[in-house]
UniProtKB/TrEMBL annotation:
Keywords: Cytoplasm, Exosome, rRNA processing. Residues 32-139 form the Exoribonuclease phosphorolytic domain. Belongs to the RNase PH family. Gene3D superfamilies: GHMP Kinase, N-terminal domain (3.30.230.70). Pfam families: RNase_PH. This is Ribosomal RNA-processing protein 42. InterPro entries: ExoRNase_PH_dom1, Exosome_comp_Rrp42_subfam, PNPase/RNase_PH_dom_sf, Ribosomal_Su5_D2-typ_SF. It comes from the Eukaryota. It is found in: Cytoplasm; Nucleus, Nucleolus. Its main location: cytoplasm.
Length: 140
């Protein structure tokens, strides 16, 4: 993931803010930003949601399609993730700038959700070795 360089002056500023229970935006260290969740915001998906936290908005759409199980796990369905970091979010994402972060986030989501502990992937199996549900999760 991209590293952020912090100067000594910024480190002191952050540490004093922690000591004084104050963030840059005026909130206390324990205060949270207002969050909004909207569902069914994209009509051509099987499910969608938009989460807004501060000045950040994340839009997720899920499409379910019948597919073929992976040969190594014939009794499970599977997930496919695609994350697009919008060029509107920051100038760093212009062109192909957000592609590396998007790929890294997609891989992380795959690791988190594509296992027995997060989601029962067997419940996505229709007929072992023949048909299963494939959930395509697109994140913007």
């Amino acid at each position: 993931m991209a590293t952020v360089q912090v100067s000594e002056a910024e480190k002191v500023y952050i540490l004093h803010g922690i000591r004084d229970d104050l963030r840059v935006d005026g909130r206390g260290c324990e205060d949270y930003r207002h969050m909004e969740v909207e569902t069914d915001v994209v009509s051509n998906t099987d499910g969608s949601a938009k989460v807004t936290l501060g000045h950040t908005a994340v839009l997720v759409g899920v499409k379910a399609e019948i597919g073929k199980p992976k040969p190594m796990i014939p009794n499970e369905g599977h997930l496919e993730f695609f994350v697009d970091c919008s060029a509107n979010a920051t100038p760093e994402f212009e062109g192909r700038g957000g592609e590396e972060l998007g790929t890294e986030l997609s891989n992380t989501l795959y690791k988190v959700f594509n296992n027995q502990h997060s989601l029962d992937l067997r419940s996505l199996c229709i007929s072992p070795g023949e048909h299963c549900w494939v959930l395509y999760v697109d994140v913007l």
